[in-house]
C-alpha cells in the first residue's frame, strides 16, 4: 500500500552524507521531510550505533526510509528484510548506485516526493559470509580490482574515482581463485570477481545492462588477467555497457557462489571496504526485501 502524508515513517539518516553534519542543514532537511510526512520520526546513525537499532522497533512504522549512500541503505535493509515493513530510499551518498536499479531519483527532494507515489515490491538481496561475518549486499560485492579501487578511494576520503582507478590499474595483480558457481567448479586466475544485484557501481560503471533486482539471480562479472594497457583500454567499455565485446570480461547469472583465493584480496560490499579476505560464500535471497518503488 502506498504511503500518505499521515503515515508513520522512520527516517534513518547518515549525517555524513549530503553535508548534514552541519546543524542548520540537518534542520532544513528535517523540515523538508515534515512538509511531506507530518508524522515523520528521525534517527541519526553511523557505523558504531546501527547495531543498537532493534528490528522489532522498526516494524512498528508504516515504512523505514534510509537517507544516505549504498552503505546506509544496506545497513537499514538488513534490519527489516524478511518483514512486511517496506524500505524507502532518499539517496544522499557519493555514488548512489542502487537507486538506479529501482527507478528512484538521485535527487533527494525528488526521491522524497516519489515516496508518496510508491508501492512496496519484493526485491532480492545477496547474503554473503566470510570467516568472521555474515551479512547482506544490496548492490555489488567486488573482489580484486574494484575492491582495490574502493580501498584506495577510502584512503583518499572517498574523493573521486579517476585517481584510484588509475593507481589500481597499475598495481593490481591477478589472483588465483577456486570458484564453485551453482555447484560448478571454475579454477583460474582473475583480475576481478564481482557479484552484482544492481546495475552499476562507482557512479558510472555499468556492470550489467539487462539485470533485475527481482529475478532471483545475481550477475557474476569476471575479468581475466590482462596487461596494464589492456586493462586500461577495456575499462571504458563499462562506461557504455559494452564490456561484452571483450573476451576477457565475462558475465553469467548465478544463485550461489563459493570463492577461495590463494592469497588475501581486497574486497568491498556496497562501497564499504571489507579489507583483504581469502574466502567468501554468497547466495541470492529472492524477494527478501520489500522496497518502495515509484509507480511513475
Can you give a write-up of this model?
The protein is built from eight helices and 16 strands. It is an alpha+beta fold. The protein folds into two domains: 123 residues, Rossmann fold; 158 residues, Sandwich (Tumour Suppressor Smad4). Strands 5, 6, 7, 8, 9, 10, 13, 14, 15 and 16 form a ten-stranded antiparallel sheet that branches. A four-stranded parallel sheet has the order 2-1-3-4, sandwiched between helices. Strands 11-12 form a two-stranded antiparallel ribbon. Helix 3 links the parallel strand 3 and strand 4. The radius of gyration is 19 Å and the shape is globular. It starts with 8 loop residues before the first strand and ends with a strand. The relative contact order is 0.17.
